[in-house]
Amino acid sequence: MKKYVGKRLLQLIPIILGITLLSFTLMQSAAGDAVDALYDNASGGVSEEVKAEKRHELGLDQPFIIQYTNWLGGVLTGDMGVSYISNKPVFETFVSKLPATIYLTLTSILLTVLISIPFGVLSAVRHNCFTDYLIRFFSFIGNALPGFFVSLLLIYFLALQLKLFPVMGNGGWKSIVLPTLTLAIAMSAKYTRQVRTTVLEELNKDYVIGARARGIREPVMLFASVLKTAMLTIITLLALSIGSLLGGTAIVESIFMWDGVGKLAVDSIMMRDYPMIQAYVIWMAIIYVGVNLVTDIIYHYLDPRIRLEQEG
Amino acid sequence: MEVTERTAVRIRTRKIKKDQTMTKFYLFLTLVIILLLVAALAPQIVPYDPYAQDLTQALQPPSPEHLLGTDRYGRDMLSRVIMGGQTTIYSALLLVGIITGFGTLVGLFCGYQGGKIDSLIMRVSDVFLAFPGMVFAIAVAGILGGGLINAVVALACISWPKFARLSRGQVLGIKNMPYIAAARLSGSGSIKIVFKHILPNIIGPILVTSTLDIGTMMMELAGLSFLGLGAMPPIAEWGSMMSEGRSMLQTSPWVILAPGCAIFISVTLFNLLGDTVRDVLDPKTNKRKKEKK
């Protein structure tokens, strides 16, 4: 087990190397750099000499392969550099934004699970009845609403009209309600459908008929057998969602001014703050490997027939 | 006797079900075509010039003159929503066309050839599939700089692997069938086999997936524009129109509601069409469900 985990963690190295090189190359080929972004936003013209000096100071005038190796050398010695824009250390800034994102991830996943599993199971059990149609109708609508529209609607009705929650910011438990709702609505719509399909498939299997014939009560069978097997699919999906939520939900975070990594990423991309973007890219690689690893381990426990070593 | 009767009943109900799916299919297809026509003919049918500013008319609520009200520069919202449809819908269609075409070609090649290149490309597509897609698209779009074309490119970069996977799986399923061997024995070249004998047999599921993808892609494109990484103002595009209206949410919500509902309605239409295309092209799943019931 330990060996397997170690082996999987080693995969991080080529992934990080590949992806940081890729993002470096992309950034080099794009027009404009951090210096342009920094001075063009400031009022008043700044002469090309000042810009060139700043570029020299940041090392942006060097060939790109040297820039990359310099950066890589820094990372290996534990120094991720300073932000081109704020001049603060990248690592500290990035880590300080993580709790907000993790907090939002946890609440929205929790709400999604609380909505989608009961409704999905209910929808499958009441297959083709009114309840089923109603639930499917709502999940269909949820699937067709873009997240930014949902969040603006929520802001308009719950924050501006009813004044129940603050419009944006990180203060207090009330401010997390609207972003959580936005994310949970979109995800629940997807998962309710998924849970319904999976449970429906399970209900058609022979062991269910067997259990019914033996007189096992329906709820017991549903929760002890059906839901347990259906979990496998659901957990894969949830893991993927957790992965993308930990990557920061750029749109929702920027609408609600939620100070997490997603907003940080968008801001740094706009300002071409290379060291910050690189930190973010590394974070995504870690999430990718971590989420896959955790999913495989959970698989193994839920279904011992799945062997870990084969995949490693 | 009874058995034959029951079979007859079953065949009849199946036929009715099939007729219903076809009716639904034609209904949604008509609606989508109307939507596409409205978008295509936008410049001809808009009641006002969508770009003409008139500050005396700024932020008027919906009225008989301006059915959906006006925005901050006094531009007619209805005209802008119709114009925006052209931008949003056709760029989503272009995007889906690109990823379907490219992904399918890659999948056909990988599935048919196999070998080292296949496993390398599949590794790469694994990474793309597992990465949080939207964030990656934001990164690519941000790095390339704003603009509608760049947004399309960014989303295409992250979305093609889905189709590559799908078509590769399908190719692997039929590659070893006797009729392929027969075609090869009778002297058909690889290219002819792939495009004449394999592609027509796998096009169904690909078509279903790409129709269902149109709605998603439309939302993601609008999302990028909303962040300022897609269509640039003053171009009328639903996502950027909503982003422009954000600050006026409290006083004039129609500025947000009009493009938002437009996105919602068109995504719904494309999703409904996708669902029925699946039912039409894939009668097997329907039959299986019915027998199990």
Can you describe what's shown?
- The complex is a heterodimer of chains A (312) and B (293).
- Chain A has 312 residues and is mainly α.
- Chain A has 15 helices and no strands.
- Chain A has helices spanning 2-10, 12-29, 34-41, 48-58, 64-76, 90-125, 130-144, 147-161, 174-203, 206-213, 218-246, 250-255, 261-271, 274-302, 308-311.
- The mean pLDDT of chain A is 81.
- In chain B, helix 3 (77-113) runs antiparallel to helix 8.
- Chain B is an all-alpha fold and 293 residues long.
- Described by the principal axes of the CA atoms, the overall outline of chain B is globular
What is the name of the CATH superfamily of chain B? MetI-like
Gross morphology of chain A: globular
Rg from alpha-carbon coordinates of chain A: 24 Å
CATH overall fold name of chain B? MetI-like fold
Helix percentage of chain B: over 70%
Strand coverage percent of chain A: under 5%
Keywords:
heterodimer; A: 312 residues; mainly alpha; 15 helices; B: 293 residues; MetI-like fold; 77% helix; 0% strand; globular; disordered C terminus
Concise description?
The complex is a heterodimer of chains A (312) and B (293). By secondary structure, chain A is mainly α.
Topology:
The complex is a heterodimer of chains A (312) and B (293).
Chain A lengths: L1 H9 L1 H18 L4 H8 L6 H11 L5 H13 L13 H36 L4 H15 L2 H15 L12 H30 L2 H8 L4 H29 L3 H6 L5 H11 L2 H29 L5 H4 L1
Chain B lengths: L1 H39 L1 H4 L31 H37 L1 H16 L2 H12 L3 H28 L2 H8 L4 H37 L11 H8 L8 H28 L1 H10 L1
